[in-house]
Automatic annotation (TrEMBL):
<keyword id="KW-0804">Transcription</keyword>
<keyword id="KW-0238">DNA-binding</keyword>
<dbReference type="InterPro" id="IPR039422">
    <property type="entry name" value="MarR/SlyA-like"/>
</dbReference>
<dbReference type="InterPro" id="IPR036388">
    <property type="entry name" value="WH-like_DNA-bd_sf"/>
</dbReference>
<dbReference type="GO" id="GO:0006950">
    <property type="term" value="P:response to stress"/>
</dbReference>
<feature type="domain" description="HTH marR-type">
    <location>
        <begin position="3"/>
        <end position="146"/>
    </location>
</feature>
<keyword id="KW-0805">Transcription regulation</keyword>
<dbReference type="InterPro" id="IPR036390">
    <property type="entry name" value="WH_DNA-bd_sf"/>
</dbReference>
<dbReference type="InterPro" id="IPR055166">
    <property type="entry name" value="Transc_reg_Sar_Rot_HTH"/>
</dbReference>
<protein>
    <submittedName>
        <fullName>Organic hydroperoxide resistance transcriptional regulator</fullName>
    </submittedName>
</protein>
<dbReference type="InterPro" id="IPR000835">
    <property type="entry name" value="HTH_MarR-typ"/>
</dbReference>
<dbReference type="GO" id="GO:0003677">
    <property type="term" value="F:DNA binding"/>
</dbReference>
<dbReference type="Pfam" id="PF22381">
    <property type="entry name" value="Staph_reg_Sar_Rot"/>
</dbReference>
<dbReference type="GO" id="GO:0003700">
    <property type="term" value="F:DNA-binding transcription factor activity"/>
</dbReference>
């Protein structure tokens, strides 16, 4: 396989993975009246419990100003709470509310069930293969980014 074919395959599969991820999440987003970005924020908070606005932005690779306004909307929906740091009021910490936690927990359970329904009896081996391939692709991409900085 030449470089051009490899590059095109990576491009095609990246697009396909993105499209399929959107197809999987779209019904969940619609069910709860959320956007994909809002779900990403909630999932990140579910995984790590709380974040500053800055660390949340870094965690999902979105500009801090955009995250701040998204968090305000999610706060109005009673899905997360924002708390100002008493020592430094510029720092805002966000965490899921009980309602937010319940919704994300339901989403997580739904996704786990979908994955289990569509994986064969060699699940552990399959997961390891997928993760290994994704890591190798990410390492290649990081090397390309690093080489471009020099």
């Amino acid at each position: 396989m030449n470089i051009s074919e490899f590059k095109n395959i990576i491009w095609d599969y990246t697009r396909k993975i993105n499209e399929n991820t959107n197809k999987i999440f779209s019904p969940l987003c619609e069910q709860y009246g959320l956007t994909m970005l809002q779900v990403r924020i909630l999932m990140e908070l579910y995984k790590y419990e709380s974040h500053s606005i800055g660390s949340l932005a870094e965690g999902i690779y979105v500009a801090g100003a955009n995250i701040s306004s998204m968090c305000k909307k999610l706060e109005h929906m009673d899905l997360l709470k924002r708390v100002r740091n008493q020592q430094d009021e510029r720092v805002v910490t966000v965490a899921l509310t009980q309602k937010g936690n319940e919704i994300v927990s339901r989403m997580d359970k739904f996704l786990n069930e979908k994955i289990l329904q569509n994986i064969d009896e060699k699940a552990e081996e399959t997961f390891d293969d997928i993760i290994s391939g994704i890591k190798k692709l990410n390492d290649l991409m990081q090397n390309i980014v690093s080489a471009g900085k020099n």
